[in-house]
Every structure is written in C-alpha cells, then in structure tokens.
Batch of 2 targets.
Target 1
Amino acid sequence: MHEKILQVKNLKKHFVMGKGQVLQAVNGVTFHVNKGETFGLVGESGCGKSTIGRTILGLYDKTDGEVLYDGNDIHALNEKEKFNYYRRMQMIFQDPYASLNPRSTVKEVISEPMEVHGLYKNKKEQMDRVYQLLEEVGLNRDHANRYPHEFSGGQRQRIGIARALALDPDFIIADEPISALDVSVQAQVVNLLKELQEDKGLTFLFIAHDLSMVKQISDRIGVMYLGNLVELTSSGQLYDNPLHPYTQALLSAIPIPDPDIEESRERIILEGDLPSPINPPSGCVFRTRCPFAMEVCSVKRPVWQEVDQDHYVACHLYDQTLEDKEKAKIQHNPEVLV
C-alpha cells in the first residue's frame, strides 16, 4: 500500500481578467502523489501544469478544491504552519538564470533559505552545509564565491537544485527544470535528480512538455489539456497503451531512433488551434481538435473513469466501458437498484 504524501482534489485556479473575463487555468484536477515516487505532469504550453505546481506550493491561492499534504489542507494553514510547511516542500524553477539573484554569490543563494529558517548556529556549520550541497549536485566548493553569470546553463540549474535541497525537503516540484538546457545537458540533470531521489528518499512532481524525457524519470504520468487532466496511469502503461486521443497525438510526435520505423509510421496531426482558456469549448475541451469527436462531446463533459487497473481517462470513447462496469456491479449485487 503506497503512502499518499500529496492529494489534489478537484483543484481549480481561475484568474480574473479585464472586462469581467475569467481565465480557467486549472479546471477541476484530481490526482495524488505517492511518497518516494516521481509523478510526471505533461502537456502543451498553457495547459495549466505550472499553475498547478505554483498553487500546490502556495504561490497562487486556489479558486476551489483541496490540496492536502500529509492530510493537511495547505491553503487552510495559518502563517506559522505555512512557514514550517515551506521547509518540507521546495521548487526547482524552469529558467536557472532568472531564478537566481545575479547580485548574490552562489554561497549566498544557497545559504539564504537556511538563514530564513534559522537552521545553523554559526557561519561555519552553514558554510560546511553549502559546500556539501555543491558537491552533491556535481559542483565544488570553489564555485561558492562566484556569481550566477559565471556559469553555464546546466551549472546554474545545479545551483538551483542545491538551493532547493538546502532545507532538506521531502517533496520537490520541478517545474520544467530541463526545458531551458541543451539536449546534451538535459540527461545529466535528469540523472542527477534520480540519484538525489534515491539517496535522500525524495518525492518529485516533475512538470514538463517533453514526453520522451518524462518517461525516463516518472513512475506515473498525468496528461493535461487546457486546464483539465485527460489521462493518468503508470509510465509504461501510458506509452504502451495510450487511451486518450490527445495522448496518442503527443506520443506520435516523439521521434523514433530507427529510420525505417520513423519513415513508415503514421504521425497524428491535430487540426485547429489550441482554444482559449478564457472561452473553452463546451463539453469535452478537446473536441474541437479531436479526430474522433462525437455529438455527445459538445454537450457533455466526459467522466473521469478507471478504464483499466490504475489507468484513468476522461473521454466519451470509453463511456461504454463505464456502463459495462455498472451493469456488472448491478448483476453482482441487485440490491443497488433498490
């Protein structure tokens, strides 16, 4: 039995725009993250995945729903409780340069969280910890006195990772931590995160748009589209048996390192533009680009259902599966009709 360290229940985050318009960035998302695992959250830019991460961390106030960490509603905590909570959860940001103060040295960047939380009694203990963190992320103590602009993109992201580890957190939200890096460096950073997870027992929420890279690090993956979660299952199951048409299209875009297979396989091309989250389509939000759209898709929002063991999808193509399950339930126990 897995221990659920984070539970997100029907989370909504809407932003009020000008002229009374409402941008529905996140619109009723539900999932959980087990302790010690890496949960991948993927989708196109603008689908709301980064908004979920920032709302979980408390950088954004929720519009509706619940975010439970170890059973406690994060958004219901008082200021002192939130202060202690922030020590347990940290974030690795997408842009390693923009997230680091250019006027602070590396040692100041990493030690600042320690000072805010009063972790060490003297400077020596604090600096020893800074040196230790630098070595853990593949840098050395000589880097402590340099400034962010003196490093490459990969090195700056390692500094960001060291800062995230400064408070010995349990849970780390990695918000597209490799998208701004060269391809040759991306694998190094992913391998570093996996090593740190194994050594420290960390739990990750890994947010990205690159499905091929997410597969390498994630235990389970949730696929988002226009503020909605459309599919969720284990990493292997998602790649071997994608159910939602959007997931199938995303996977078809991943190049295969075999010229014969790559040349012969069929690519799924989605027609139309991504709708605006200010005025999303009625019913299923994916219907305007879905090659299998039916009449019901325009009037009814698909039900979030378990089609196979631990394989969830929100799509009307699988409504019959849900009906069959209900029929089987009634046959097995006729009293449900009473």
Target 2
Amino acid sequence: MYAITGITGKVGGALAKTLLAADQPVRAVVRDAAKGQAWATLGCEVALAEMEDAASLAAAFQGADAVFILPPSEFDPMPGFPEALSVINAVRTAIVSARPGKVVCLSTIGAHATQSNLLTQRTLMEQALGGLSMPVTFLRPGWFMENAMWDVGPARNDGVIQSFLQPLDKPVPMVATADVGRVAAGLLQQHWRGARIIELDGPRRVSPNDIAACFAKILGHPVRAEAVPRETWGALFRSQGMRDPIPRIQMLDGFNEGWIKFEGSDAEVIKGRVDLEIVLRELVAAG
C-alpha cells in the first residue's frame, strides 16, 4: 500500500494515477473528505489527516509499504519558518510512529544551499527526515514549468510576460509536474538503503526568452519577456499582500546568481520527458 499526501495537487495526482495505472494499491491522504471521494471512486483507500497533526498522519501511514510526503508550501512565511517546522515535526513524529517501509519526500532544487531563502523550508525537512531508520529518498525537482500559468493572460492580452528570473537568456532547470509525479511513483517502487537524493530536470533548460517564444508559437502573435527591475521587487510583493518578501527575493536571487542549483553533476540529474510546449499548451487551453 502506498500512502500519498498532497494527492489533490498536480504532483500528487500524477503520482497516484501512475501507481493506479500499474495496479498498485493507493491510500489517498486528504484533509477534506469531499476531495477524497474522487480518489475513492478511482479505487483508492481514503485517510483523513492534517499535515500538522502527527496522530492523524500516523494513522494514515499505518501499514503502508511506502509513504509519499508532499509538504505544503508557505509562500509568505513568518521568520524562522514556524509553519514549515510545524508540518516537519508532525510528519517526522508520524513516520517514526507508523514505521512505513520507505519514504519518498518532495524537496527542491537548491535544498543544499546554506543561504536562507524561501526554499529553506525543504532544507529543514531534509534535515529532519534524513536520519530516519527506514530508507528515505528526497526528490529535488527544478522550477515547475506550471509556474508559467501566471503568464498566460499577459502573454495572450499584452504580448509581454514579466520575469523575475534574470537575465532573460539564462537557461534554468525547469520540469513539468507530470514528470515529477511519474518519477516519484517509480522511486516509491524501488528498493534502496539509507537516505538518498534524486535530482530531476526537464528535457532541456529553459530561459524566460524561451517561455516567451513558446507562448508566441502557441498564441500566434509576438510575445516577449521583460525583466522586472530587482529594486522594485520588495514594494511590488508587499503591494500584492506579502508580509515579508525577503525569503522570496532571496530565492529569486539564488536562481539568478546561480547558488540555487542542482547539487550533483549533470550526468547524475534525471531528465524528464515532458517538453515546455506541452505544458504551455495545456495552460493556454485551461486559461
């Protein structure tokens, strides 16, 4: 039995569907019974649990051969990442109590970075789970291609997409959530010892200019990328409702300055199958 948290999202959903297609038993761990009904219809067991509640998580993980941990993302964290720590402590306690056969945890590119930034939440999770007695895999994907969903409207209506990734011609590791889910499903079915790190890129690196060119091809009119000046980020993010934009700015700096990157060599990084155009076409169709 594979217990899957985050199953209602893109990554967790792709993972679960991959397992179900292989006739593997899946337990959908959800916080809302109504959202679990769709997975029950597909043949999953359903377990209710909150990611901050160790007792309900332990019950959801009980008897599982493997568990997939998809930590919720906090995009405007309080200083010291207390929201993430609450989840981390509950997840670790639940795993220690339930003792599943193995664990795969969704982490991120750059989780090894020593500079504090928004992705430090995943660094803390790796530190907490890395010493568990059962086998643990940390899956570190690149930037999600689906983040371009915010660019669909501007690309379609204005022919311009605003980019915080800079310079505009710099390729960045980007991967489709479908590839993340598919690879995670494969990892859950593997056998290994101890803790390991698996890094996942897309078929090729992608620059903001590449995204603009791909939108232009799909939409049939010119689209260009435009860099948002670094000095305006703080005020802009605050105007959008963020209490503290510094962690997000530090993360973007990490990508732009190159210290948020894959830890392993290029030869060690797994390549996904889903190309950027496939993802953008789906986003345009949906948007």
